[in-house]
Amino acid sequence: MSVFTTVTPAELAVWLKGYSIGELVELKGIAAGITNTNYALTTTQGKYVLTLFETLQAHELPYYVNLMAHLAHHGIACAAPIANLRDAYIDRLAGKPTVLVSWLQGEPVESPNPAQCRAMGAMLARLHGAGASYAGHMANPRGPAWWSATAAELYAFMPEADGRQLRAEVAQQARHRFTQLPSGVVHADLFRDNVLMQGERIGGFIDFYYACNDVLIYDLAVTLNDWCARDDGEIDDERAAALCAGYQSVRALNAAERQAWSLMLRAAALRFWVSRLWDWHKPQAGELTWRKDPAVFQRILTCHQARTEAAGWLTG
Ligand SMILES: Nc1ncnc2c1ncn2[C@@H]1O[C@H](COP(=O)(O)OP(=O)(O)OP(=O)(O)O)[C@@H](O)[C@H]1O
Ligand SMILES: N[C@@H](CCO)C(=O)O
């Protein structure tokens, strides 16, 4: 249940006078989601999602919210923020910063098929294209500096062999620099639960709160590791090839990106192995987070380390 902050219909009806989206018809808490409070909001004009931020502060939100507005303006399927009468996207309610966004059609898919992976790849590449004209800039807060510092605090909690594997991968990644690769705005967390699908169409991307500026193929690697991995950590060739073909139908990877691809898949697995290990071993007091299984990403990393032919997915 993810309504951490309760808002009554009466409070919301008053708050809505600050917007031009009509009168309140229905207010319903959204059960999914683990970080913020989300409400489905129906007015006489349409349907929206109201997010009350439980951890991010108002001053941290503009990069993400302006990015969503920019991408929606460019036709990318994503939640579009709605401005209030003071022309601001970020507002306040019940003591929390808020953002109101358009309601997207669709549902997350648990087991995507190749056609859905293909659609996903194409929309991701379109996001990268549209992001090129976004003026905001934010370095990746979950990049190599973060994962090396975080891993250093985790070794003591890990079985020796796992710690050795983690140390070796952190060291391996540190030997490479990717500054020559095309970079720009990345979502950086496009897991299946952050994409609403309508059959084989993308209903929209949500949850932009890890978006940042980084290497573009890192985003493709993050997406592939979640959309195309089997339970044993192996990547399903058909789904992976479809995702990459969809991406390359919009933006073809260059030679340097192809060369870096295997390492990037490992970097993307490492990032989520480390964040899940951290949440597992060091849950923060009072933090509204659920622990997800770190071993999923250890298995994916192990398979990538063993595989020499990841480039095959790029050629279909
Ligand atoms: N714009 C939208 N249109 C329709 N449904 C949405 C929209 N935004 C969010 N939802 C629904 O609300 C649920 C919770 O949203 P979300 O996953 O962003 O929660 P969160 O707690 O903010 O983030 P997270 O769980 O990733 O930490 C989603 O699973 C989705 O069903
Ligand atoms: N998508 C992440 C959680 C949010 O960053 C995970 O599954 O570990």
TrEMBL record:
Pfam families with a match to the protein in the record: APH
Protein name: Homoserine kinase
Homology family: Belongs to the pseudomonas-type ThrB family.
Gene that this sequence comes from: thrB
HAMAP family: Homoser_kinase_2
Pathway linked to the protein: Amino-acid biosynthesis; L-threonine biosynthesis; L-threonine from L-aspartate: step 4/5
Enzyme class, spelled out: transferase
EC number of this enzyme: 2.7.1.39
Domain called Aminoglycoside phosphotransferase: residue spans: 27-253
Xref: PANTHER family: AMINOGLYCOSIDE PHOSPHOTRANSFERASE DOMAIN-CONTAINING PROTEIN, AMINOGLYCOSIDE PHOSPHOTRANSFERASE DOMAIN-CONTAINING PROTEIN-RELATED
InterPro entries reported for this sequence: Aminoglycoside_PTrfase, Homoserine_kinase_II, Kinase-like_dom_sf, Pseudomonas-type_ThrB
UniProt catalytic activity: L-homoserine + ATP = O-phospho-L-homoserine + ADP + H(+)
GO biological processes: threonine biosynthetic process
GO MF annotations in UniProt: ATP binding; homoserine kinase activity
SUPFAM superfamilies: Protein kinase-like (PK-like)
Keywords, ordered alphabetically: Amino-acid biosynthesis, ATP-binding, Kinase, Nucleotide-binding, Threonine biosynthesis, Transferase
